[in-house]
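Good morning C.,

I know you're traveling, so I'll keep this short. The sequence:
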Amino acid sequence: MEAPPPGLRTDDVLEAVAGLVDKSVLCREPGPDGVRYRLLDTLRQYGLEQLRRSAGQEEAVRRRQRDWMVRRAEECERGWFGPGQPETAARLRADRDNLRAALDFSLSTPGEALAGLRLAGTLWFHWHACGASREGLYWLDRALATAPGPTRERARGLWVAGLLAAAGRDFPRGRRHATDALALARALGDAAEAAHAEYVIGVIRLFSDDLPGALRHFEATVARGPVPGQHLSLAGLDQVELACALGYLGEAERAVEVCERALALCERHGEQWVRSYVLRILALAHTVRGDWSRAERHAREALRLKLAVHDVIGIALTLDLLASVAAARGEHEHAAVLLGGADRVWADIDTGRWGSRTLNSVRRDSEEQAARALGREAFERAHRRGAALGPAGLAGHEPREPGRPHPAEPATAGAPPHDDGTVRLTRRETEVAHLVAEGLANQQIADRLVIARRTAEGHVERILGKLGFSNRSQIAAWVTAQRCPAPTRTHSPEGIT
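The tokens, ready to paste straight into the viewer:
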């Protein structure tokens, strides 16, 4: 707990919080980093109205909250290249309303824009690695427009915005932002932010199909090594992209050598996210060698690590690679299922896979092999099944053996988790999932089940998290694919939470 404001003792704060919980003014809930407290919406609005009547108090309180979020974000960034990444990702997801409040205050209050730009740029790893690139780009666009001065914060904000724009296929905008970031960082004498901007420029070359140019770029940055202040995640990703370019150019042996060095770096720090990309490139190198067994093993481990932080882009890339391995091994139905899941994830990023000839040719070859072997109708059925399973379900998906039920296709939902890794929902979550499939909004679900809207929202969030989905339509597709009746509704209130 942070120190209380002047004039208050920690014991006083604890006693006040305990009293508010006893009176049900505050709700006590478990969170990814311990106990969390929240106000009911009606009480929050009442408290905000009272705060606004106190001259100058609202701005002071919001500034204190923003400064707390800046310190929290910086602490998370410092520890990102190390153990505990899934916990950090979960903590920041739980803090998303706090982050939004801090950013909105900073970018709508005179004199606070630079702090908002600093916060948005510090969170680069959250926006990029944890499936929040669109929201990150929204805040960075606002921050860059509001704080135009030639500062280190702006240099960082520009390359982060460039990375996130490129993730949404806007390569010209991404390249422009990264180039501007590089020029500003060099003018400021900031070698670390210049190195970060160079990483973005190289990534855009790689996924714009300039493989020779990307290879030369990352050979130079890897040979130079990390510069003082450069985040180790981005130094590690320099090695990943070098190995990726080598893999796509058919130089499997060199790619493996680079990956082994990158793995050693990750293992020294207990790091998982960059490691997941290294494993994916190792899998790619083994496909070039024709070693399908090792390729699949590395890719499955990469997918597991990516699911832990909800790395949407990494999940999509890895599912594509797993599908190509399955097709090459003659596991055509399995390949079709994986392609269905990959296409579902790409739908929330870019269905054209950034227009990359390399990525699209891998996907097209896998589909052609599977569709030719299965027939178009059977391929489409398997493809739809994969789209409904979601990434978490696909992580445990195995090739079907004739005459045996498929482990990733449960006959009933709402059962407890099984040892085969299949994701299962609780009875209440299954009930909520069926109501989502009926098209009901959160308030309608709450009314139907006689629960608070916040409780309904929590159930929907947990369902999305368990299944690895990002929107309600995916839940609806998953429910339809299960072909199971909704559980009998009890209408028993769960309490107002």
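Safe travels,
E.
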